[in-house]
Design a protein that fits this description.
Rossmann fold, globular, 13 strands, alpha/beta, 8-stranded mixed sheet, 17 helices, 5-stranded parallel sheet, 422 residues
Length: 422
């Protein structure tokens, strides 16, 4: 829940403005949820949300303060930033302790309070609070606090890069990556972008039924132009939370790239998007190896045969050696149960890899073929299909949005819900 903390601010006024020489860098595309206790603070936060520097942020405001925040995140993932208003010192510290038990790692917390006390400030820092702002606050105070969380030199990049690659050609890695990205955006409510790195034959544009005039090739072949504004113009909007950086899928030029050809694109995406899903083509070159090693998390998609087993083992060994301080890659089995095809059992696969697959997705050509031909996701074709839950499991494992957010059910759950309603 911590990134860094700042000293309590001096006296503020509702109409306070930043000095002319102060530069407040715009916030990236992040989710912000505020829990206010007074209508004045809520109005200030609402006004801040209309500021150009928070134009990319998704801002949601609720009343109820700390208690409402703790209750809200018992069964829901936390956003990138939580803004909390609190009056009392004891309630504030105790509430933060409760919030820490339901808060995702990496979430930044900004507290708006009325006590100007260095001892309180130290306690807030110790508990991982990123910023403490003295009330009453104006809109620019809220803008400054949120934006500075991501512009300070010591602040971590907000984006998480997830690389999906097939152990062999034709195993459905692109289909898996596109549906997992859909689950990240729809079910986990995270802003995400799919970057189709197969410039010659990529299928992301087809799968999402998008045909943008520009895409990732424009960025790769013009590295000097790559910045936030340029990348934003190249993105194609698929849903409210999902965007696409499409491949041209044309053969009018060859796509021989240097090792660091995609670095500028990835760095820019990481600074503006909470989640970046890389659809990595099945090839072995300097830039694909760099993309996999540099990703935060990796998913290998394999079919249950000997060649896939060998390739998955080789990828696992190389990536674990190259990333000793990261968790090992994840893998899933796809196209399991093809009629009359001899297959290697999941248990044998796991024994050789020394790791269990995240899921084993059955071979169902009817629904997957229909989705591909219609330019739709599996969830759009059949809302209750069993593979949708598997895509969500993969999304949760890759993003760190754990299953602990789910409410524990018991025989008393219906009674408890009725009592809460009363």
């Amino acid at each position: 829940m911590i990134s860094y903390a700042r000293q309590p601010q001096e006296e503020q006024t509702e109409a306070s403005l930043p000095p002319a020489e102060e530069h407040i860098a715009p916030a990236p595309r992040v989710s912000v949820q505020a829990f206010c206790e007074t209508v004045e603070t809520a109005a200030a936060v609402q006004s801040a949300g209309e500021d150009r520097r928070l134009g990319k942020a998704h801002l949601k405001i609720q009343m109820g303060g700390m208690a409402a925040a703790v209750e809200a995140y018992r069964s829901a993932p936390t956003p990138n930033v939580i803004v909390l208003e609190s009056d009392g010192r004891n309630d504030l510290l105790g509430g933060l302790d409760h919030l820490a038990t339901v808060c995702d790692a990496g979430t930044r917390v900004v507290v708006i309070g009325r006590i100007n006390d260095v001892m309180l400030y130290r306690e807030l820092v110790r508990r991982g609070v990123s910023d403490y702002v003295l009330a009453p606050v104006g809109a620019i105070d809220v803008v400054r606090s949120i934006c500075n969380l991501f512009s300070a030199p010591e602040a971590k990049a907000v984006g998480r890069i997830i690389a999906v690659v097939g152990a062999k050609g034709g195993v459905g890695a692109s289909t898996i990556s596109h549906n997992v990205a859909w689950a990240i955006a729809r079910d986990l409510a995270m802003d995400a972008v799919v970057a189709d790195l197969d410039l010659a034959f990529g299928t992301a544009g087809l799968d999402y039924n998008q045909d943008p005039p520009q895409g990732i090739a424009d960025a790769v072949f013009s590295p000097d132009r790559v910045d936030t504004a340029f990348i934003d113009r190249l993105l194609s909007k698929c849903t409210d939370h999902l965007s696409l950086l499409a491949a041209p899928a044309t053969l009018d030029r060859v796509y021989d790239f240097g090792v660091d050809a995609f670095d500028a694109v990835f760095d820019t995406l990481r600074s503006t998007m909470p989640c970046i899903v890389l659809d990595v083509p099945h090839q072995w070159s300097g830039w694909t190896k760099r993309a996999l090693i540099g990703a935060d998390d990796i998913l290998i998609v394999a079919a249950p045969d000997l060649a896939n087993l060998r390739n998955t083992k080789n990828l696992f060994d190389l990536l674990k050696a190259a990333r000793p301080n990261d968790r090992p890659p994840l893998y899933c089995l796809n196209q399991v149960g093809v009629p009359k095809r001899p297959e290697i059992a999941a248990a044998e696969f796991a024994k050789a890899i020394e790791s269990q697959p995240v899921v084993s997705i059955p071979f169902e050509p009817q629904i997957f073929g229909s989705a591909a031909n219609n330019g739709q996701m599996i969830a759009e074709i059949s809302a209750n299909h069993k593979s949708i839950e598997m895509f969500l499991q993969i999304a949760q494992r890759l993003t760190g949005r754990s299953e602990t957010k789910k409410q524990k059910s018991s025989l008393l759950s219906p009674l408890i819900e009725k009592l809460r309603g009363k």
